[in-house]
Design goal:
Elements: H1 2-45, H2 48-77, E1 83-85, H3 87-104, E2 108-113, E3 120-122, H4 124-142, E4 147-155, E5 159-166, H5 173-176, H6 195-205, E6 209-214, E7 220-227
Parallel strand pairs: 2-4
Antiparallel strand pairs: 1-3, 4-5, 5-7, 6-7
Helix pairs in contact: 1-2, 1-6, 3-4, 4-6
């Protein structure tokens, strides 16, 4: 039975890694082709515009390579031993690290944790990075004087949900379906949009999902659903 569970976990990991690396490989291939065209124009004309375009493409290429390295590293970390992890505890621990900076920015935080929420089962490090990405994304979206609401609760069918809502502009209808892809970010070029991408990689590998959308009152809403850890008798 244990061997079967381990095989299922490995298969889920391989599917998640293949999806993530496939997207990055496609991005890398497109950038190489664009860079080749820009360099061809630069050689032919000697103009400044193609040179600037080539420089930008090269910078994007470097970011893509770095992203591929990070995705591969995360994939390997997801093979680390799994253990019961309380998402409520994890959120509280991460919030303590963010508290000073968020207070400085005037961000108001509320936390709602259901007392009977079970643990989830996974490697602590990747789970910590995934939850941190959701919190940091919400804080950035909320901005100066904004609000962030975090809720951890059990769901029917032995699931645990973590919902992170912010008072920012929210996801556009197009962005809601793509925000968890690498390089799709609302924060501009300095942020390559990897946080939610890696968070989704963690969630899907552990048998869950990451759902992005908007709350009823506006603002972004990220919901991570993970299977509840089985309780040993």
């Amino acid at each position: 039975m244990l061997a079967q569970v381990e095989e299922q976990e490995r298969a889920a990991f391989l599917r998640g890694q293949a999806r993530g690396m496939g997207a990055l490989a496609h991005r890398l291939s497109a950038l190489v082709e664009d860079l080749r065209e820009d360099l061809g124009e630069l050689t032919a004309s000697g103009a400044e515009a193609p040179a600037a375009q080539a420089t930008a493409r090269l910078a994007d290429l470097i970011r893509t390579i770095n992203a591929a390295v990070r995705a591969d590293e995360m994939g390997r970390r997801l093979l680390e031993p799994r253990e019961p992890v309380s998402l409520a505890w994890l959120v509280g621990d991460l919030i303590r690290a963010l508290d000073r900076e968020w207070r400085r920015r005037g961000i108001t935080l509320t936390i709602e944790a259901h007392p009977e929420t079970p643990c989830v089962h996974g490697p602590l490090g990747p789970l910590e990075e995934a939850v941190s990405a959701l919190l940091l994304n919400a804080g950035d979206a909320a901005g100066q004087g904004g609000t962030v609401h975090v809720a951890v609760a059990p769901e029917a069918g032995a699931w645990v949900s973590l919902r992170v809502a912010d008072s920012g502009p929210g996801f556009s209808p197009q962005r809601a379906g793509k925000a968890a892809l690498a390089f799709v970010s609302s924060k501009g070029d300095p942020h390559p949009g990897l946080g939610l991408f890696l968070a989704e990689m963690v969630a899907t590998t552990l048998g869950g999902c990451l759902i992005l959308g908007n709350g009823n009152g506006g603002g972004g809403l990220a919901t991570m659903r993970l299977p509840a850890a089985e309780i040993s008798e």
